[in-house]
Amino acid sequence: MLRRPKILAALAAVALPVALTGVSLGGGPPAEASVQGPPSAVAASAYQAAAEKYGVPEPVLLAVAYAQSRWDDHAGAPSTSGGYGPMHLTALGASEVADLSGKQKVASADSLQTLRKASELTGLDQSTLRTDVTANINGGAAVLASYQKSLGLPVGANTSPAQWYGAIASYAEAGTKATAAGFADDVYTIMAKGAARTTNTGQQIVMPPVAVTPDKSQLAKLSLPDGAKPAQSDVECPPSLGCEWLPAPYSEFGDGDYGNHDLANRPKTGKIDYIVIHDTEGGWQGVLNLVQDPTYVSWQYTMRASDGYTWQHVKANDVAWHAGNWYVNMHSIGIEHEGFAAQGATWYTESLYRNSAKLVRYLAVKNNIPLDRAHIIGHDQVPGTVPSTVRGMHWDPGPYWNWEHYMDLLGAPIWGKSVLPVKAGSIVTIKPGFEGNVQVLNSCDTPGTPCREQGTNFVYLRQAPDDNAPLVKDIGLHPDGSDGTTEVSDIGSRAAAGSQYVVAERQGDWVAVWYLGAKGWFKSPKSAPDAFAKPGLVVKPKAGKTSVPVYGRAYPEQSAYPEGIPYQTVTPLQYSIGAGQAYPVGDLNIETDYYRAVTFNGQPPADHVQVLGKDKYYQIWFGHRMAYVRAADVDVRPAV
């Protein structure tokens, strides 16, 4: 069953809404970077030199940069919150700052323009600070030192990192002390563990661990509100995460319709199996306005990019209208992240990733949700409900969401080793890397034009083991039978990081997997593989069946519906599983159910009631999205 007409219109509008609060870059096109020497040589000296010049302990500078960008410069492209370079110097325009004043909790106008502040402190122009790695590091060091001085604390490269808690918290550009403290705590955790990685430009940076106990009393010096205290408020968040309750309206309007979610009593009225990762396709303030509109749709949480500040709108035990699939809504929690799936070359901030991981870990433990990519899913993994809705399903958070890094932060890394040979019948997990995995995409900014080169989270699947072979077909997205495309929104030929497939065939460096009922080929050399074999269970059509249907929801059989509740037709999608094919199991223990909620404040037995069926289904990995199959149609077997 689809939602009401007004809600259907709203769902359609969510696909690519207009950006509601944009970021003003200003200053015209950025100047060319002026970094001299090999990248590794620049990396080896830039942080040390900036630390000495501006009087910041080098471990502090390195850890702050890692917490902001993991030392990546993103080729001078802005983040989703208008930050540049490894130090994430921000450049929110004056009009945007004015627009935010007096509204939801927001950092000060000065902190939202640290690029300008860095320019004033260093004498470097803003274009250079955006694009020159060394200049950007110097700018960040200067801003950190200025925060330390403003708090009346000692400055110097040899000062103890323990004395920089307040300055680090200030650098978070947070709207509350709770969020600022969360950032500072992250920085000191990074400092204690140490870090080492190769950046997007090939820079090799190593930060040895430094054990230090920070002076957290400095937080009192910051002129920020305390923020919500989860133990004393309505929010369902971990104590270390700054959260605020901003309720979505449950109210009637106009013609007797209502919005914008449904009251429930989960898990009693349906267990929570999934956490769905969305992006907002707009600025946070406009999105917060939308979720407070009863005629619009809803989701459980919104997270701001600049500092990871989080608003909760719908209780976890209630059903938000966020996934475009009522069955998935019934069994999921939706989190909107400020950002864009394709716009330009913007990138999701490290604060967003880290705070989102904190929230998801908390929700997963609280609701017994497995921390894996079959249950922590993107909106782009949610299946269409019936054939007619497949083409309109969403594709956020998009190809630039770093699933590998995100799952690392969750403490549930994507499988990256093979304990079994990659051969016909084995299950493989896709892990192509991110920074070095630059795939051709088009139409991020202008239709038909190439997107800016940057790391992506997927590999393309082709119809034959050849780099020039056409991409695999998706009859749901291309009903005319045409080949897949490299359009940024066309996800029909992609295998994303963490997704699993069953190998159909191998030829040298090429691997074919079963994908949407056919073979899809990708290159995975043994010397540098993109897929890794692991044990697991697969589904295969039962003996004698030439074809098995797949479904976008696991609704009960007709006999399960009591009098007064209309039967919700079980309709197969346009795909099928052929004889000899196999697909990995995502979950064997999903509920076959339908939560009836169609009237305002409805009461059982006719409304706000869970209908449970006996016709068992399994969740499987199927193409670029998940799907469901009837247990009666398939056999479950260990992969070979």
Secondary structure elements and their pairing?
Layout: H1 5-14, H2 39-54, H3 58-69, E1 83-84, E2 89-90, H4 94-100, H5 114-122, H6 126-131, H7 133-150, H8 165-171, H9 177-193, E3 195-198, E4 204-207, E5 243-245, E6 251-253, E7 257-259, E8 261-262, E9 274-279, H10 284-291, E10 301-303, E11 310-312, E12 319-320, H11 326-330, E13 332-337, H12 350-367, E14 376-378, H13 387-390, H14 403-409, E15 427-430, E16 458-460, E17 494-496, E18 500-507, E19 510-515, E20 518-523, E21 531-534, E22 537-541, E23 547-549, E24 576-578, E25 583-587, E26 593-596, E27 609-612, E28 617-622, E29 625-630, E30 634-638
Parallel strand pairs: 5-11, 9-13, 9-14, 10-13
Antiparallel strand pairs: 1-2, 3-4, 6-7, 8-12, 10-11, 15-18, 15-21, 16-17, 18-19, 19-20, 22-25, 22-30, 23-24, 25-28, 26-27, 28-29
Helix pairs in contact: 2-7, 3-9, 5-7, 7-8, 8-9, 12-14
Q: Would you identify the CATH H-level superfamily of the largest domain?
A: Peptidoglycan recognition protein-like
Number of helices: 14
**Ranges with pLDDT <50 over ≥5 residues?**
1-41, 93-111
Give the number of domains: 3
CATH architecture of the largest domain: 3-Layer(aba) Sandwich
Coarse morphology? globular
Assigned CATH class of the largest domain: Alpha Beta
Average pLDDT, rounded to a whole number, is 89
Distance between the termini: 38 Å
| Percentage of residues in DSSP E strands | 15-25%
Strand arrangement across the biggest beta sheet: 5-11-10-13-9-14
Largest sheet: 6 strands, mixed
Task: Classify the fold: give the CATH topology of the largest domain.
Answer: Lysozyme-like
Based on secondary structure, the structural category is: alpha+beta
